[in-house]
Amino acid sequence: MRETSLDGHIAAVTGASKGLGREMAEALAAAGAKVLLIARDELLLSEVVRGIRARGGVAEYMTADVTDETVGDEADQFARETFGPCDILVNNAGINNRKTIEEMSFEEWNEIIAVNLTGPFAMSRALVPGMKKAGWGRIINMTSIMSHVSLPSRTGYSTTKAGLLGFTRALALELAPHNITVNGISPGPFATEMNRPLIEDPEKNSQFLASIPLGRWGRPKEIGTLAVYLCSDDSGYLTGTDIVIDGGWLAR
Known about the structure:
The protein is an alpha/beta fold. It has a single domain (10-242), classed as Rossmann fold (3-Layer(aba) Sandwich). Helix content is 44%, strand content 15%. It contains eight helices and seven strands. Strands 3-2-1-4-5-6-7 form a seven-stranded parallel β-sheet, with helices on both faces. The longest helix is centred in the middle third of the chain and has 29 residues, at 106-134. It is globular. The two termini are 31 Å apart. The model has no long low-confidence stretch (mean pLDDT 94).
């Protein structure tokens, strides 16, 4: 396969300070895109940007909270002033809430909706006009396997991720005439910092791996590779779908 190049493209990635968001931002930069990293933690963001630049990539960061309804417009303005209009958007920022419905407060319910659903809406609403003008665009929404199945005490998370999957499909139909694709990525269990306590517990780790058909955790690099493909010209006929990358979890 030929090497994928994103030279000339400008990407915005939310939740890019750590985990899979960081991995995707680094992968897009390595493929040649100029990348705007967006998250709340300035220290972590600056570290990621320094790493990208040290490897020859082009990146800048913006500290912001995706629950702020102005975040999309601010990101659009920042990108235009720094690189130019974004034609790639990765809506990765998200939170989980492991509480039963009786335990969850209205404040917590509204917060998870604001981060997981309203954030992608705000970012997409702001950046789509520039993509339309360019006649090309790529949007990736991080949906999760919890948009397809669920577990106890995941009411808020599963609700918002299922909603994000619906948002992905509807937006893909809306933007298809403008040569803008919209797809979801549904990660399963990945070896990120969030799962570090489980990975480092030999007994729990062994029990968990037994439930994954491929018998291992996902490697963050595998998400980065997929994101680069979905943002390339090679994926131009792929839109309105959700790619499950879970080691066979949902096939059981």
